[in-house]
Design brief:
Blueprint lengths: L1 E4 L4 E7 L2 E4 L2 E3 L1 E7 L2 E6 L2 E9 L6 E6 L2 E8 L1 H8 L12 E3 L4 E6 L6 E2 L4 E7 L2 E6 L4 E6 L6 E2 L4 E5 L1
Antiparallel strand pairs: 1-2, 1-9, 2-3, 3-4, 5-6, 6-7, 7-8, 8-9, 10-17, 11-13, 11-16, 12-15, 13-14, 15-17
Length: 165
């Protein structure tokens, strides 16, 4: 996961085998949730009180307070970072009528049905690619018109997966 602050600072976080890595360096860290939106984070022996204040409508960022100081941060998932690294950009816009495969892989699960109403950000299907499960989410509010793939089907980049009404 990559987090960018309103000051322009970029931090990469990853958890591998129960250990935290910050900017590719293994760091002793622990996270304790106090309540909804309230956390105590311990990083390299230093404690931080973190509060989630609100999440913007696009679902990619947050307004947080860390030890009394407020930040706006944007968050990119492993899938979004991988797509950027491979030179692929997600199609956007609220009028997108089709969802295409962003990379070759195997459809491991279809999470919606034809005729189902979805909202932007709802999970639609899971694509296994490069030993990772990638949850493909709805780019818009709408209704599923046709599902063009089945579970356990292999797909290539830009194959049509489903269409919206």
């Amino acid at each position: 996961m990559e987090i960018k602050t309103n000051s322009g600072r970029t931090i990469q976080f990853a958890e591998r085998e129960g250990k935290w890595h910050i900017n590719s360096e293994e760091v002793p860290a622990d996270l304790l949730e106090h309540g909804q939106g309230s956390y105590h984070v311990l990083v390299a022996g230093k404690g931080y009180e973190v509060y989630l204040l609100k999440s913007p409508a696009d679902g990619h960022g947050y307004f947080i307070r860390v030890n009394g100081k407020e930040f706006e941060v944007s968050v990119k998932s492993k899938t979004e970072l991988l797509l950027e690294k491979m030179g692929m950009k997600k199609e956007g816009g609220s009028t997108q009528q089709e969802l295409k495969a962003p990379m070759p892989g195997l459809i491991s699960s279809v999470l919606v049905k034809e005729g189902q109403k979805v909202q932007k950000g709802d999970p639609l299907l899971i694509l296994e690619a490069m030993k990772m499960e990638n949850v493909l989410k709805s780019p818009r509010d709408g209704e599923i018109k046709h599902i063009k793939i089945k579970e356990k089907q292999s797909v290539e980049k830009n194959d049509l997966l489903l269409t919206f009404v």
